[in-house]
Amino acid sequence: MIRILCLMTALAGAAGLSQFPEFSQQYMQRLAGQVDELSRDLKQLDAMALDLRMGREERLEQMENTPTFAADAAFWREKIARHARLGAHLDSLRSATPMARLTMPQRFADTALLQSVWADFTPAFPLSQAGAMSGGVGFLTGWAGAWAALAAVLALIKAPFRRLRRQSGQRVKRVDPGERRDPVLERPSPIAQPHDRRPRLAGVQR
User: Fold this and answer.
1) What kind and span of H or E run contains 43?
2) Dist CA 25 CA 108 (whole Å)
3) In angstroms, what CA-CA distances link 196 with 83, 189, 193, 203?
4) Could you tell me where the Basic and acidic residues compositional bias lies (predicted)?
5) Which of 135, 147, 182, 194 is 20 to 30 A off residue 113, Cα-Cα?
């Protein structure tokens, strides 16, 4: 039964991770689109600042010091931060191999982008080498994870019984102070007999 559960978990892990290369590829395409869109928006900001003979930071500071445009400045700063964050993720994913991307979950941290990719993603049979290798990693990970989980559950189940066995053993070994003990018997020492100095009579044996 335990092997069947481990096998089912391993097959589920293989099926899931075998789709990761294709999913990560689609995620990278959406990510590149987001970065390009943000780059166009920031170019517009730079153009507006240039029309006022200012740099980007000078224009943002002017907007922040103006109550009417303070909200717009916060909006642009959020876009700048998002552009830098997503651009760094995209560069790291592009420079990594499909298998190396398995170890970079922090680069798939954009929740909105993940949801949009997952909504349009259609699982398919992995025909690429990366898909097969990912499936193998998923199988081994699922098998090991199932064994570890079952071992932890069995340890939790056995823990109370081990505790009771240990306590009962200690109870048997413990000696009650008021318990009556038998006295220790010692071997008696021989008593020397006094020497009889009376003269012996002939024919009398003692």
Assistant:
1) helix 20-51
2) 11
3) 124, 22, 9, 17
4) 173-185
5) 135
From the number of C-beta atoms within 10 Å of its C-beta (0-12, 13-18, 19+), residue 78 rates as exposed
With CA atoms as reference, report the closest residue to 19 among 124, 145, 117, 133: 124
Burial degree of 81 (CB within 10 A; 0-12, 13-18, 19+): exposed
| Mean pLDDT score, 108-123 | 86
In angstroms, the CA 2 to CA 25 distance is 36
pLDDT, tens digit, 9 for 90 and up, residues 64-104: 999 999 999 999 999 999 999 999 999 999 999 888 888 89
Tokens of 66: 């103006």
Q: What is the DSSP letter of 180?
A: -
pLDDT of residue 157: 72
